[in-house]
Structures are given as structure tokens and as C-alpha cells.
């Protein structure tokens, strides 16, 4: 993939790893960069010092406005390969030539927090991918949840204002557990389905490579004959979907605010890519009205049992950025960046985004030429009569900049659809101008109930507790509002559980949805399970033989696991130098723990880490002379997920692969 990325950036890269003279931005070699020019050694700095002025002015202006939402992001380069031709659905070349590899850039993000917030708040995750195709850039700008908080984009500013820190005191950061958010969703019940996703384990992913991605909206695929199909886009992680526990998330955010991004960065540096398969849900135009909901409603998903996901290709993210600001911060996504064969539906939220994304890039990136920034520039040639503006990076030759023109033989010239020119789908549209919503959008609770019906026992308990935590942070008036206006229309058991935990009386009138459908695809228990990228914290006592450590390391690495040796201080055992101390790492940062004990008793930090790992239902292994370690612990070798690795190494691996030991 390195060749693909270099191809994108080769014209614009400044390689500061190579020997070069220090110069000004005009290329003038500089002889001094430690002292400004003064009138005498103790005198005032002179305005004549153009180098000082240039350096300081650039520093003063080197920040740009962060994104209003999705401010905290992490970007990775990669490539997408389509498995088989989709020409029966679309004429997009990158989807119709089997084996074709298209360079991509994907940016993962949180939504509510500022750029400096933590990696694992309870929040939606952005999942935006730019495909650099030969027909122009296609941006699939989605989230890790398939639905959204509102049906019409005109409500988006209200929602964002509500979920952001409250304006009078700028608190809380990167959190929905506060009054204005719950006031909004309680009064705008079209949010009910999305709130269920937000309170679920989907909102606290274990890894950026262990969450699904969704295009959210209903798009169109259009083939060469002009036939249209409705489509929803899915990303399916090869590593499966896995999350952290909420208690664990809060501890991780204290131990390592960069946990998700650091994990992805380090795995890619080790040569372990993040892989996602692209899936399509497709509905024939003739079947638009055959579902029991409106397929254009962005608060609804298409159940995978009713509309199967067809896996059509794979994205491999395998190269880190060279510079965070130039690439991750300056990348500009837009759902209106499409290629021939991909078009829009009348989803009212999508229609609003088609305006908003261009508008926000203009203020963030300084003007209309943000498409010329290297990370945004298409790999195919582009030419038009647009000129000038802030940040113009191209030199346009020729006398004309208008269409139609005679002087330049009408160049650049539009292409017909048969020649590759983009043609909007010829949809018949008619109706009165009206500010209203279709009745087919007015069921707010059925799919919220379906989501709850689909969860496993432990997932449902986590959701109940998430509601209790969030509403417990709100004023009593807001708790009552949410329970009466929102929860009481979703599920009675949920309503009574949360009401009891936050000190509110459950409504006497039961208005819960009677929708009894479930969808197994909505439960994270129905996913892939793998040892790929899994980490093991190995707690080591000083009197453990070197051969024991080498044997453990070899066995773990042979399975693709990533072991780290931990103790109370850094020391050597033979040729092995331990990796970390209890001061710098913690059980919450690992997928599992192993304790390799000698005759010495466990120190207090080791006991604390093992107890936390047990509480969070992680696999725990023990070995060597470990009989005495359980004297210090509240659990024993007979508990589920606590395994003698010398006697049952395969059992330990099975527990790690299962992510959690839910039977505890």
C-alpha cells in the first residue's frame, strides 16, 4: 500500500528526516534560529528581523477551527478491493472491476467531545472513508450506528447544541449524561431508536477495528442502463464487534486517554492491519413501500433478516499518516462526493447534509479550494472554470474561465453520460411546497423495542445500567421527563428498572411498544471471535526462571497474542528485560492477564490488577508455583475463566478469544 499513499502525496511531501539546511518559507538559508535580532545584547528586538516575524506569525496562525462535531479523530490510509462485479446494480468502476484496488483514507472519530477529549466516552463513532477512484473521490461518511437522532436535518443544530457541554458552564465534556441532552431526546421522541444504540455496548467500542460502520442513509445505485436500486452501506469488521464495560471505560480514560488511537497506530506499525468487509443491503425500486416502515427514514434500519447484507469487498487499513494535521485534521468529507453509479435518495437528513458539509469546510479550511489540499485531492485529473479564492494552489493557464466559450473551443467540455459524465437519476418528483413530515415517519418506538428485544442478557443489563447512570446525572425534573416521554413508550421493564434506580416513580399508565420482532444481527454476541490484536499482561515475580518466561512468550506469540511482562519495577531475568511497571500500565489496558508467580507473595498492585481483571470478566491465567497466589485473591482457580496455563493453555486461549467470560 505504501506505493498508493506515496502516489497521493509525492508532489507535496517535505521529508524532515533527511539532511537539509534550515530556511525561511521563501527558501532563504538561515544562520541563526536561537536568538532574535536586537539592538545590542540586552536591547529591544528589531522589527527588521523578518525571520523572527515569519516564524512567530506562522506559529500564531497554525491552529484552525476544530470540527463542531467529530473533532477528535484518527485517520489511516489503506486500500479497498472489490470481490466481484456489481454492474447489475451500479456503473461505478471501482465496484464493477473484480480485483481492482482503490486507495482509501478512513477517519474514525467521536462525535460530542472536543479534539482534546478522551477516546472512550459513551458516544457515537464517526466512520468516514474517502475512496480515491479513477472517476473522482467518493466519500462514504457514516457512523458505527446505522440510525440517527433525527429525521430532518433542520433539527441537527438543536441536537448538537443539546449534546455539547452546556453553554452556561461548559460542562460536561464529551458526555451525554446531562440535562440538555436528555431534555432534547425526551421531547424529540424520533430519537428513541438511536438512544437505545447510544446506551448499548456499541457506544463504547473496545477498538477502532472492532466496530461496525454504516452509511446511515438510503442511497441509490444506478447501473449503465439507468436502473436504480436503493442501497445501504455496511462495514463489517474482520476482528468482530467487541466493547469495553462502562466501569472499564472510565478507568481506561484515566489511564490512557489515547487508548483506541494508540492501539490502532501500534498494530499498524507492527504490520497488523485493520480489515473491514463492505456489505450492501439492496432494495429494488419496485419494493420501496413493502416494509412496515419508510425506508427513507434515517431513524430506521433495514433488518438484516429481511434485507440480507451482501459482502462485496474488503478494506485493508495498513498505513499510518505521516502528519496528523496535514492528513487527519485537514481531510474534508462530504456525502455529496459521489461517482457515476451512486446517487441520493430523498432521505431528509441526507438532503440537509448535502448542504452542510461544504458549508462547514469553507470556514474550517479557509475557503473554496480545500479540495486542493493533498489529502483531499483526487488522483484523477480535474479541470473546470472555478478560479482564485483563498488557498489557490494551482496555476491555471489560458485566457478563458467561462462556459460556454468559443475562444478555447469550449474547453473544459462536459462529457455525456456515455462518455463518463455524471448524470443524476431521473426520478419523478411532484408535490406541494410544504413544511411537514410523511405519516410513514411517525412510528418512533417499534425499532427501539426491536433493538432491545434482540440483545443478550448481559447486553440488556448493560443498557439498563447505562440509562440509570446517565439519568442519574440529571436533575429530577429531567429524569421524570425522560422516563415518562421516552422510556415508558419503549419497554415497561426498562422503565421500572431505571425509575427505581434514579429515584423516580414509574408512570402508572403503561404505554410500552408491543412490537415483538427481534433481529439477531443487532446483538454483539453474533460476531466474529479472533485472537488477532489481543493483548496479554503477564505479571512476573522476580524469582521466576528465565526459561519459564521465554516459553510463555513463545507460546503466546505463536497464537498471535501480544504479551507484555509487568512487575513492580523494571529488571532483567536472564536475557529478558521486563516491559512495564504497575505505575505505567493497568489491567484495564489488556484483554487478559497471566500471573507467573514464584515463591514470593503477590505485591499489592498485582492483587489489585488481578481483581479488576476478574471484575471485568477477562480471561486470567496462572502458572509455575502459583498455589499461594489465591491466598491474596477473592477468587480461586475453580472460577470460570481462571485457568492453569501449564495444564490447559487451550482453555485460556478460548477464554481470550471469547473476549469476556460472561458466565462468571
From TrEMBL:
Cross-referenced InterPro entries, in alphabetical order?
Catalase, Catalase_AS, Catalase_clade2, Catalase_clade2_helical, Catalase_core, Catalase_haem_BS, Catalase_immune_responsive, Catalase_large_C
**Protein name in the entry:** Catalase
Q: Which gene encodes it?
A: katE
Protein family per UniProt: Belongs to the catalase family. HPII subfamily.
The annotated region (Disordered) lies at 1-35
**Tell me, what does this protein do in biology?**
Decomposes hydrogen peroxide into water and oxygen; serves to protect cells from the toxic effects of hydrogen peroxide.
**What cofactors does this protein use?**
heme
Q: Which UniProt keywords apply?
A: Heme, Hydrogen peroxide, Iron, Metal-binding, Oxidoreductase, Peroxidase
Q: Which organism is it from?
A: Jeotgalicoccus saudimassiliensis
